[in-house]
């Protein structure tokens, strides 16, 4: 690169937007990377087949309303070995580096231009952009064609940041790629799984770019800070939705008259409120209902296909669906607000007893209610609250780690959380009710005794404490 061209390039780097070409072999996850960085599952087209992207597509990351980074998605390099041979012919004419690429693009004969149509599109972007994100599928072995790709892209005299994708697939291949890239002089790299999202990996990507592009350090830092703030806001908003769901359902009550009718109304309220929470969380994360399809708990058109109160749901979360008491507990517990000393445990057992009566056709539950004095209500019992909590924790933990490039719906293939049972796998967090939940339930239930409305100080305090607790365990 001559001095005049170098000065021109350095001056260009000082103006926004920073232009990044996303390059690599076909089907390595280039479009997937953009989708995840953009938080947009609609960008481009993602298929498990070669050559999906045939044209250059661009999108921008905004900082305070202005374009900070322009990402350019490019077609995959298909025949790097043949391309390298053509470039060697050009270099024999005394041209080197960028000049050899520019000459190849400008002077290529029509038949050669047709043969390398996709490669030429990539090379144009490599010359125009400030840096290259070279996406690598770590499931692939290190082959000569990849070495040739890197050598060809290096002729553009632009910083290259390798992005190692699909890093969970093969640990040995991953290490081989690290070693090979170091031998090629590419010591700065980032591991970024475009399907399993991890904000810390995205943070490292921007930090590596700061190292490679010193002139862009400050705007990249500002973008990184803004992205971190936005992610924390979205995460907190999702957690707030779940906290609101739990507190609302723990404090929702109906009069105990017309018992079976009121119980149905109680169930419908819980169903609708959970569906509303799900829709809001998916919207906040810029996902759709098609992103969630839980085995035995599928979501279609934003609704749980398997009912929250179905026996299969209880069984899925470790409850004995054949037990009439368990089935009754998922209907609602009767609570006598005027009966002094009635514990929450007693209230839950009362709900189970009532359920047993309904299940068998006996009148024990009705007789029990008839003996109560004072104001009688139905409320959501502990078992139902447990299931609500576990379902929401499962969704949040997985959606927070889901990249927008993921094409397979989120699925639950086994019991992720078990109520009242010992964990069957090593991950304790995903197999039992989390620590602190009984205390949170107690605080919520106390609002029933206080008859605290949503605008009351007590209600708002319990809601904030629940949000804080959820944020700590997710």
What does this structure look like?
The chain has 474 residues and is of the alpha/beta class. It is 51% helix and 12% strand. The protein contains 18 helices and 12 strands. Strands 2-3-1-4-5-6 form a 6-stranded mixed β-sheet, sandwiched between helices. Strands 7-12-11 form a 3-stranded antiparallel β-sheet. Strands 8-9-10 form a 3-stranded antiparallel β-sheet.
Quick structural summary:
By secondary structure, this protein is an alpha/beta fold. The protein has helices spanning 3-12, 30-38, 80-91, 97-107, 110-115, 117-128, 144-154, 171-183, 199-212, 217-250, 259-284, 311-316, 324-329, 344-360, 364-371, 382-399, 437-450, 457-473, and strands spanning 18-24, 57-63, 66-73, 131-137, 160-165, 190-191, 253-255, 293-294, 297-300, 303-304, 333-336, 376-379.
Please tag this protein with its features.
six-stranded mixed beta sheet; single chain; disordered N terminus; three-stranded antiparallel beta sheet; Rossmann fold; alpha/beta; 12 strands; elongated; 474 residues
Order of strands, widest sheet: 2-3-1-4-5-6
Distance from first to last alpha carbon: 51 Å
What proportion of the residues is helical, as a percent range?
40-55%
Mean pLDDT: 76
Secondary-structure element string: HEHEEHHHHEHEHEHHEHEEEHHEHHEHHH
From the alpha-carbon coordinates, what is the Rg to the nearest angstrom? 29 Å
Low-confidence stretches: 1-13, 46-52, 294-307, 319-374, 412-431
The assigned structural class equals: alpha/beta
How many structurally independent domains? 2
């Amino acid at each position: 690169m001559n001095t005049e061209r170098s000065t021109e390039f350095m001056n260009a780097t000082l103006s926004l937007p920073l232009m990044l070409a996303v390059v690599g072999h076909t089907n390595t996850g280039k479009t997937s990377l953009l989708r995840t960085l953009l938080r947009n599952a609609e960008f481009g087209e993602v298929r498990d087949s070669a050559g999906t992207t045939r044209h250059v597509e661009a999108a921008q990351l905004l900082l305070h309303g202005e374009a900070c980074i322009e990402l350019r998605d490019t077609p995959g390099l298909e025949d790097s070995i043949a391309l390298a041979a053509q470039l060697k012919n050009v270099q024999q004419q005394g041209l080197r580096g960028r000049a050899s690429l520019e000459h190849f693009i400008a002077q290529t004969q029509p038949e050669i231009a047709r043969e390398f149509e996709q490669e030429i599109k990539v090379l144009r972007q490599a010359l125009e952009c400030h840096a290259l994100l070279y996406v690598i599928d770590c499931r692939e072995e290190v082959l000569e064609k990849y070495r040739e790709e890197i050598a060809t892209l290096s002729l553009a005299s632009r910083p290259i940041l390798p992005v190692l994708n699909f890093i969970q697939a093969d640990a040995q291949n991953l290490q081989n790629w690290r070693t090979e890239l170091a031998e090629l002089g590419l010591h700065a790299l980032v591991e970024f799984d475009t399907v399993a999202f991890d904000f810390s990996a995205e943070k490292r990507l921007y930090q590596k770019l700061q190292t490679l592009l010193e002139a862009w350090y400050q705007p990249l830092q500002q973008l990184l800070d803004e992205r971190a703030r936005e992610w924390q806001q979205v995460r907190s908003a999702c957690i707030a939705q779940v906290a609101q769901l739990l507190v609302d359902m723990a404090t929702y009550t109906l009069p105990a008259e017309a018992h079976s009718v009121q119980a149905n109304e109680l169930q419908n309220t819980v169903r609708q409120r959970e569906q509303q929470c799900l829709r809001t969380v998916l919207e906040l994360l810029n996902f759709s209902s098609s992103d969630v399809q839980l085995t035995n708990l599928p979501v279609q058109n934003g609704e749980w296909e398997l009912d929250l109160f179905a026996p299969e749901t209880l069984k899925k979360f470790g409850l004995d669906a054949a037990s009439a008491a368990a089935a009754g507990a998922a209907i609602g517990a009767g609570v006598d607000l005027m009966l002094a000393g009635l514990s929450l445990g007693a209230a839950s057992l009362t709900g189970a007893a009532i359920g047993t009566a309904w299940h068998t056709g006996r009148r024990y539950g009705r007789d029990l209610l008839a003996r109560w004095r004072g104001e009688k209500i139905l409320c959501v019992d502990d078992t139902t609250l447990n299931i609500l909590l576990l379902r929401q924790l499962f969704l949040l933990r997985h959606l927070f780690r889901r990249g927008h490039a993921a094409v397979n719906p989120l699925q639950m293939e086994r019991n992720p959380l078990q109520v009242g049972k010992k964990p069957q796998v090593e991950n304790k967090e995903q197999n039992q009710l989390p620590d602190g939940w009984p205390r949170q339930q107690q605080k919520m239930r106390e609002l029933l005794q206080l008859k605290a409305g949503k605008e009351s100080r007590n209600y708002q305090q319990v809601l904030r404490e629940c949000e804080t607790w959820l944020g700590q365990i997710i």
